[in-house]
Specification:
With about 130 residues, this protein is mostly beta strands. It has one domain: Rieske Iron-sulfur Protein. The chain contains no helices and 10 strands. Strand 2 and strand 3 form a beta hairpin. The radius of gyration is 14 Å and the shape is globular. It starts with about 25 loop residues before the first strand and ends with a strand. About 30% of the residues are buried. The N terminus is likely disordered. The structure holds FE2/S2 (inorganic) cluster.
Length: about 130
């Protein structure tokens, strides 16, 4: 059972976030993201582009809006460069903030205690990464 206490802390990936896309959408095949790595996407719903990224850990995928809570800039300086060198965190390349992969919570850097905005993603029956809007 969910209580008010349960809703405290960082947001749950998959329950919030609005990249502006109004329908489920296939982003890529799971095999297109190396295990422990990430991939960025820019989607356009006709009302402007929306940038997000997906981190893969084995068969789990975690999606976030590509905007750092510190200054709102994209996290990656290099294409798909979202993960720290040790593979343990999401890294903002601008000022080095580190975020937990599983929930986007910032554990180090100028926005410590803040969180990335989650985007609901999942694998479908064909091992494709799908952005869920429903
Ligand atoms: S913009 Fe990400 S840590 Fe400053």
């Amino acid at each position: 059972m969910t209580t008010a206490e349960d809703s405290k802390g960082p947001p749950d990936p998959g329950t919030t976030g609005d990249p502006g896309i109004k329908a489920d959408r296939v982003l890529c095949d799971l095999d297109e993201i190396e295990d422990g790595e990430a991939k960025g996407f820019v989607l356009d719903d006709g009302q402007g582009a929306n940038s997000l990224f997906v981190v893969r850990e084995d068969r789990e995928v975690y999606g976030y809006v590509n905007a750092c809570p510190h200054m709102g800039t994209p996290l990656d300086c290099q294409p798909d460069g979202f993960v720290s060198p040790d593979g343990g965190y999401i890294l903002c390349s601008t000022h080095g903030a580190l975020f937990e992969i599983e929930d986007g919570f910032c554990v180090s850097g100028p926005c410590a205690g803040a969180s990335l905005e989650p985007v609901k993603v999942a694998l479908d029956a064909d091992d494709r990464v799908v952005l869920r809007r429903s």
